[in-house]
Fold these 3 entries.
Entry 1:
Amino acid sequence: MKHRLIFKTSLGDEVYYLKDTIFIKFSVKRRGISTSKLNGGISTNLKSVFNHHLSQENIDYLTDHDVREYLINLCNNFDIDYKQSTGLVTLAKMNNVSIVEKSFKNLEITVLTTAGVRTNASRAGDPSSYYEEYGKFGTINTIILTNVALNDDTLIDAVMTATEAKTVALNDLKIPSQYSNGYATGTGTDGIAIFSNLESDNTLTNAGKHSKLGELVAKSVIESTKKAIKKQVWISQKSQSNALVRLNRYYLDINEFYNNLDYDKFEFIKLLQKDMKKQDNVAITSSILNLIDEVDANLIKRDEARKLSISIKDKCESYPIKKLLEYWIDYFIR
């Protein structure tokens, strides 16, 4: 199968694009950490890493087969030594990959991200979808390469920083969880792989938020995650600046709302489409939803939040937005 070279790091690592896989061939010896079912954990003998798109046929196959076995077969099909490779899987398409590079003095970071958040976005602590007892297997996949050496503890530190950065990206975009009323902190199936350069004589010992390494990792992950989400599902700052999109995080049966509405439904929708992207309406909606969040977190008393929500809602000059806010307030802060 023909590989198409799409990117090359300063160290010479080659990033290839196949129809359904992004494959990275290392040019130096690397110490890495991976969440993959194939050679996951910390390793020093890997020569490549890949990110693979699962088709519906693949998903159906994995229902009755082992993920590791699938990844081994995939490596064999690509003529890759599976003992020296690790790989992540996702529903996101590989042509939507985002690649971000950042550097400071002699420190360089490269991040490759694919992201799908429409159906699987979730918040840590949301109700689970399955109980694992004897070992069964579910997307934001992040691969990070650096030109410096990192010990095992620093690799784990980098995983923590990168994970927090992914959550920052999701919160900046106001991505809702699909399983609760909260904002998503990731998806139920996220994967990550981070690789340092064993051949470098520059060994860094901290990848936390106070270090320059941690800063570059975080900034790169935030940027690449946002770009990947926009490519894959067309969610961006612009698309999220919408009162109706914000309200959807606290889901209600909109048909019930229309059934009790003393106004022509089609005229109402016409007005709503006109008003839902106006900045003042987005701001008012966001403020009331924040009060609902504060009540849920037991940070503000319900009665006080309701009074304040009503006073904010009364300042709204849009009839459809105002009516929707009344409905949300009555349901969630009654």
Entry 2:
Amino acid sequence: MKTLGYYNGKYGELDEMTIPMNDRVCWFGDGVYDAGPSRNYKIFAIDEHVDRFFNSAGLLDIKMPVTKGELKALLQEMVDKMDTGNLFVYYQVTRGTGMRNHVFTEGPGNLWIMLKPAEISEGREPIKLITTEDTRFLHCNIKTLNLIPSCMAAEKARKAGCQEAVFYRPGGRVTECAHSNVHILKDGKLVTAPTDNLILPGIARAHLIKICKQLEIPVSETPYTLDDLFNAEEVIVTSSSNLCLHADEIDGKPVGGKNAELLEKIRAALLEEFYEATKED
């Protein structure tokens, strides 16, 4: 199959799938999601993604309709049905189905899955960023379906000819991007925002930190500012779809380009880990 969807036991091509109007996602965006890449029919970092998915659901008191093991088996079963093994594997759970009411619907949630062909960028070409004030709520550590601020920021970036938007809070603290984590190299050290309630604890972020430690590159999980971002040796953007991108421009001003050797060392190691974990048997 070229694309594949799943909803509570029903399968089909994505453009053929339908959902009940009373699914709470329609009224409240009431749910959480997770996603990651597959290569050669192998889902990368599946345990980490599923753990985060269940954690997000637990923080919102959503009752999961499957166990972790059942979900991982279902995802792999669906990947194996596809025409290509290089995919974007997305899954979400909504609180359930019922008449519109702010009070929670009782019972298990509704499970959605979406698969489509996708390739991981090797991150060799630099990207351009813009900055925008972070006006989102204070639960950014939960991967909810309420992504309007991120969508608005992503569209703002597109109109500016950029690939991503960097959020900052009052006082200039950098948090993350519209759909990525952002980090800097400063004095030969990786600096990345701490995993408090203002950022999503990215799986790619965790792999970046792990790789840096393996390479004996110091890591500081501390808040940093817009001034730090603009004056960084390098600016790194990570997500499950793009494991290691780097920026050469923010708000039309040149950035980075001061420690290309260290950047390349990190990028190559991250891609090597991904290719090794998803190589053909």
Entry 3:
Amino acid sequence: MDYLSATIWGGTMHRLTPMSVMILALLREGDMHPYERVRLMRARRDERLLAITNGTLYHTVGRLRRAGLIDEVGSDREGNRPERTTYSLTDAGRDALITWLRRELSIIDRPAEFRIALAEAHNLESADVIEALRLRRAVLDEAHVSHRDGLTGARHKNVPEQVLVEFERQEVLLDAELRWIDSLIDRLEAEEFPWGPSAFEYSDRYRAQRKAAQQ
């Protein structure tokens, strides 16, 4: 199973999956029914981050509701369409989302989860993002130094280059990510662009996207 982080609510252990995180993040934008969530995720090209299927989404919604992370707040039916149940994010769901994002932003050995955490990092305050990225940077720096020193030592011992190409690639990727993290932290600290869950709430693009998903 791809359960990633665990939090206890009311004595019940509930582990969030990437799909759980995406659903909780969407509900932080406002109450939605599952059909709207699917349309929004596809409009935002979230398939690049995880597989989106109706079955997985509805199953995840049920798990989140049973865990008390989301609540049913109403239902409606239009014409011959199936009845649609609208859900809302609970306080526990909000706390679970924030806890997961903080955790996954700082961890370096789960690249797929990090991409989702980064995509939803705007659900955190900028100070929280900076703190998590600084933790991540410290671990990445250690890994970068280790790879760099290992490559230098291997070459001094005349280890054939053909067996070092993967180590070389990883060292280059670590160096690039360190420079990217430094740049992002600098931009966040300088407040070069709006940040936070409400930063794009009233943009024309956001309103049009929500309207299209609700139809």
